[in-house]
Amino acid sequence: MNxxxxxxxxxxxxxxxxxxxxxxxxxxxxxxxxxxxxxxxxRERGGYTVLGVRLAGHCETVEALEQTTWPDWxxxxxxxxxxxxxxxxxxxxxxxxxxxxxxxxxxxxxxVEKLALLATPVFLFxxxxxxxxxxxxxxxxxxxxxxSYNVPxxxxxxxxxxxxxxxxxxxELIDLCKTAYLERITVxxxxxxxxxxxxxxxxxxxxxxxxxxxxxxxxxxxxxxxxARHVVTLDDARETVHEKCLEFFERTF
Length: 253
Fold this sequence. Notes:
- The chain has helices at 33-46, 62-66, 70-85, 98-109, 132-135, 167-181, 203-211, 238-250; strands at residues 12-14, 20-25, 49-53, 90-96, 114-118, 141-143, 161-163, 189-194, 220-225.
- It is of the alpha/beta class.
- It has a single domain, classed as Rossmann fold, CATH 3.40.50.1820.
- The strands form two sheets. Strands 1-3-2-4-5-8-9 form a seven-stranded mixed sheet, with helices on both faces.
- Helix 1 (33-46) links the parallel strand 2 (20-25) and strand 3 (49-53).
């Protein structure tokens, strides 16, 4: 499937006026565009420099994504943190969905000082997921169930199809976060979760909170969004998400 890619879909860099940079990481089959409104808010209201990275295989074709695994996606995050660290004394990171998993790994091992996790998956609703190791040999594509959000089309640039081959790698990354990465996080962490999310089960947020054993209770919190769907950066509660992320990044711990 060849899908037209919007000119604003790729990685973006928004120059701020203070000595802090923020890396924003989009989700699986998504695009940096889904993080751009958050980035613009953080730059305009907080003066932060913001880098929205493009993960390997995204903003190209589904066929390109099919050839990637989570270490390929993580490379963009590593490079993004390194780029900002060369220019700024502090770096924060925020990830949407699978981007949150990559942000967890980055906060565990890279010089990142704050972490925001937006609809980050631990438990998934899709009944097909447990069977994907077998399904991928018979069904190479699944519909993503991509939802429409009340934002300009340029911000909704993800794939309508999800290749099943890389999903096994995504599940591996979830397992690594559950069994190894979360317990090693020490930086302040904000968790955002919509209760109307039909992709990520809301109990994922509570699980993540409990597994952040090395983060003091007053350095971690959950923002529950009663009516929000999966892509919280685009859904109707996005202004609340923007405001909360800014407040969290501004806070002194």
